[in-house]
Prior knowledge:
It contains 23 helices and no strands. The protein is mostly helical.
Amino acid sequence: MNTLNRLRTLALRCSIFTKPSSESHSSLQNQLLYRRHFTTTTSEIPANLTANYLIKSCGFSPEAAVSVSKKFKLSSQERADSVLAFLRTDGGLSEAQISKLLRSYPGYLAAACPEKTLLPKIEFYRSLGVSKENVARTVSSNPLLLSVSLENRIIPTYNYLRSSRLSKKNIASVFKSGARIFLEGHTKNVEPNLGLLKELGMSQECISKLLTHFTHYLMLKHERFRQVLDDVRELGFSMEKYTLFGSAIRAFWGKDSKLKMSRCREVYMTKWGWTENDVLSALKKYPRCMILSEKKIEQVMDFVVNKMGLVSGRTMARYPQIWTCSFDKKVIPRCSVFKVLLLRGLVNENLSLGYVVNISEDKFLERFVVKYFDQVPQLMSVYQGKVDIQDL
């Protein structure tokens, strides 16, 4: 609690941006949208000079600078210089990250006393155990994280996550992958959604894991979340297998998810010979295989089934996780090596394709490449894409 208390004392009781004292505190969105309180009208810098500053000092393209300068004008170059220096040093942001952040919210260039308005939030995020580099990466992708209230939003959200039995390490993971919860807070959707899961019988242990790894999908509007849960439970997904259950929520959460699933089902069944049972089996192993684009399905199927001839189209229903893999970095090189070994009779043809594609990089190289160097000297070249199977 010492860290929290120290950060509370650092929190400034005023808006990030300078504005007349008679103006009431605006909402988070109003603070950061292009509004007049970003600037002081009596000392406003002309648009062309603002654009020039954005290009030279912030890494904007000329087109982006002109576009932004139509809505935002610097009030003080000295203040803007101070903010940029702060973001580079105390903030730890790279030039590219600063440019990305300011393209979304150039109003930060008008921030008064960034050491008092921005630094307490950055220090808090780092206090979770998130590295300086990861804080910079996350903040540049979610600029509002530097504007939302530390006292009224960030700390209460942190306390809620702790009360939900998340360790600081888990909260650090939430920040890196589901930081939007620190913007929206937990009371609007997350808390009622988790309450529903508890009502339906999910254990606290699974709820905590779901909150850690699927934060974004627990922020659905409550009524929509209830509909998604109904669909997921109807298909028989166990609430105690949080990884699959969370993946199913992820697959169903989009408004057009059922349409996508219908299209995928048609592709699998009409083009590749899957049965209804095959579709259901694949869905339960890897729910997202039912919301892929037809292009993605065909790309993998054509290579594995037609070009490599490793398995039949229907057999692919056993290995839906193959679509989680990078086609260029994993599917092509691993299947190519596997095909060579099969042709040479060096591996059992009944070896699971799922195992071949999904084991770690180190294990794959040890098990399927290094082991056969003497028999197939060019195997590493096949793996690296330097030699085609036909040239062996």
